Amino acid sequence: MNTKADLLNELRIDRKAPPEPPRRRGLWIAIAVIVLLLLVVAGWALFGRDGGVEVRTAPVVAISAGGANASVLDATGYVVARRTATVSSKITGRVREVLIEEGQRVEAGDIMATLDPIDADAQRSLSASQLDAARSQTGSLQAQLAQAEADAARLQELVGQQLVSRSQYDQAIAQRDALRAQLGSAQRNVQVASASLAIADLGVDNTVVRAPFAGVVTAKAAQPGEIVSPLSAGGGFTRTGIGTIVDMDSLEIEVDVGEAFIGRVQPGMPVEATLNAYPDWKIPAEVIAIIPAADRGKATVKVRIAIREKDARIVPDMGVRVSFLEAPAAEGAQQPRGVRVPGAAIVQRDGADVAFVLGEDDTVAQRELQTGIALGNDRQVLSGVAAGETVVLDPPATLADGAKVRMAPSGDDAR
Fold first, then answer.
1. DSSP secondary structure of 329-375
2. What are 282-309's pLDDT values in tens digits?
3. DSSP codes of every residue in 9-44
4. How far separated are the first and last CA of the chain, in Å rounded?
């Protein structure tokens, strides 16, 4: 049995505890090394191994002879059709058959749809019967008139011989004149019935919906069994059209040009158009007219552009970018000088226009420029750089002559 003194001795604190295991100290050292490596990698990615400024570049190109390809203004717009129609019937009726589909080409007069002709056929049958009745009445009156005229002629001879009374002759003459009036009325009734039949024929023809001009069907709006009407009936169950056709030969381009730049555009000016769907296809075009009205809200003026090349790939409402080009120089005229430099590469240094040209050792040289006219987003440069050289785009204010640079990733290249 242990005594109380032995138990108290067991509760005594041992102040010679072993030191902290070295394992935890090594873990902290490893963490510190990893953080240091991450900082080094981040610094390398941010500043580069050589500390050069990251830049984007673009080449300097020569201005083509004659200036025909020099753009004086760029704009965006849409392909529109000057001749398009949503074809409807002239009467309200139930669709019996639809003979068109989207993408189908139709010629002028082709049948697009037919309506139920029951009512129109019934009206035509009634008008035809009324015409027959009027003609029959006319024939009867003609026969009666012929008899009356013969009786009046005989009585005229007899009254001269005093074989009949004068009153009998006068009565025959009155009957003849009455029949003549009835025949005239009957003949006019025949004309009215004939006109009514012609109107009924138009009603039957109106049950056939025809294409007003040649074009391509872009929308099919009705189906057999639906009610169509040339006027909106105010409900969701009445169609107002059979389909939409577009004359593809009437396609042109409409663009909105800012008021500040409309002075650069002239009727007949050559244009190069590029569809957003086919960016590598350059379409020759020409300015048709400048609409003499401005949009107050957008401060733009609408310009109509004719497309010189007709192609099935060009469809309405396509987005398009256009470049208004300088007119070709006349024969013997002085050819434009200089090169095309992106406007983003030209900056101001000490009041002068300069550009930074990339050298073979990834250093840049500051060149003072003599600039000319604006060529869209580019500028004409008469001296300072040559075609084939590479210039820095959007050079930072800290970039100096002889500075070391490095290229931005390929996805950021301007060209």
1. PPTTPPPP-SEEEEGGG-EEETTEEEEEEE-TTSBEEEEE-EEEEEE
2. 999 999 999 999 998 999 999 999 999 8
3. HHT---S-PPPPPHHHHHHHHHHHHHHHHHHHHHHH
4. 96
Beta strand segments in 123-242, E: 208-210, 215-220, 227-228, 238-239
Task: Tell me how far apart the alpha carbons of residues 67 and 233 are, in angstroms, rounded to a whole number.
Answer: 58
The 8-class DSSP code of residue 243 comes to E
What is the SS3 string spanning 297-336? CCCEEEEEEEECCCCCCCCCCCEEEEEEECCCCCCCCCCC
This prediction's pTM? 0.54
When pLDDT is averaged across residues 130-149 and rounded to a whole number, the result is 87
DSSP E strands in 61-202: the ranges are 61-62, 71-81, 84-87, 93-98, 105-106, 111-115
The residue among 115, 123, 120 whose CA lies nearest residue 88 is: 115
Cα-only R_g, the chain: 47
Query: Of all helices (H) and strands (E), which one includes residue 410?
Result: none
Domain 71-82+249-325 has CATH 3.10.20.600: no
Instruction: For residues 272 and 74, give the distance between their C-alpha atoms in angstroms, rounded to a whole number.
Output: 10
pLDDT tens digit sequence for 56-113:
888 888 775 544 456 788 899 999 999 999 998 888 889 999 999 999 999 999 999 9
Side chain identity at residue 113, one-letter code: A
**CA gap 352, 369 in Å, rounded:** 8
Is domain 85-116+207-246 classified as CATH 2.40.50.100?
yes
Is CATH 1.10.2020.10 correct for 53-63+336-412? no
Q: Which two tokens stand for residue 123?
A: 């009206």
What are residue 401's phi and psi, to 5 degrees? -60, 130
